[in-house]
Specification:
single chain; 190 residues; alpha/beta; 3 domains; three-stranded mixed sheet; 29% helix; 26% strand
């Protein structure tokens, strides 16, 4: 008989919880808005030509949330600037609503910087800062440049190449009659 009694009380508890949930829903969705008014809709600001951090700050000031949904390459819009947004500027959404943004990854191509005359380490830093890598194609004798200095590069300075491309460097062994010309070449491949 204990099982029947337990089952009987669980039905009443379940029905009681159901009634409480229905009443809470009725109060929150009908009674409260009727007496206290519904939350005002917020107008979505225009995020065009703003950095992602500025756009998120503007959204927070307008009681909205900003989420960077994706990023894409763009030759016209600088890195980390908003390309598009959903919902669009001027649309109305509820306070604490979310605006999704797509930001620029910057240009997919970059110009090869001037690194002739720099030592290998300095050339590596300049190339890395420009999103490029390098490999040493050869070392050659040069009367103009000291040992471990970039003498020539391929592709040439100013050419547009895709990011992360390897630039071939030709490194000086020093002058043909120098004592340093007997040094073994270090294999740099970054």
């Amino acid at each position: 008989m204990d099982k029947d009694k337990t089952r009987f009380y669980s039905y009443y508890i379940g029905i009681g919880l159901g009634i409480i949930l229905v009443v809470a829903f009725f109060i929150s969705q009908i009674f409260m808005p009727l007496f206290f008014g519904r939350a005002k809709s917020e107008e979505v600001p225009n995020l065009d030509k703003l950095m992602a951090t500025q756009a998120i700050r503007l959204l927070v000031d307008n009681k909205l949330h900003g989420v960077v949904k994706d990023s894409t390459w763009s030759d016209t819009i600088p890195y980390n600037y908003v390309i598009s947004q959903k919902p669009e500027a001027g649309d109305l959404i509820k306070p604490d609503g979310t605006v999704y943004m797509i930001v620029s990854r910057g240009s997919k191509t970059v110009q090869v910087p001037e690194i002739v005359g720099l030592n290998v380490q300095a050339a590596w830093i300049v190339l890395k800062n420009n999103g490029l890598r390098f490999t040493i194609a050869d070392s050659i004798y040069s009367n103009l440049y000291p040992v471990n200095t970039v003498v020539q590069i391929a592709p040439g300075v100013g050419e547009k190449v895709e990011r992360k491309r390897k630039i071939k460097l030709y490194i000086s062994k020093g002058s043909d009659n120098s004592a340093d010309s007997t040094k073994t070449e270090t294999d740099y491949n970054y």
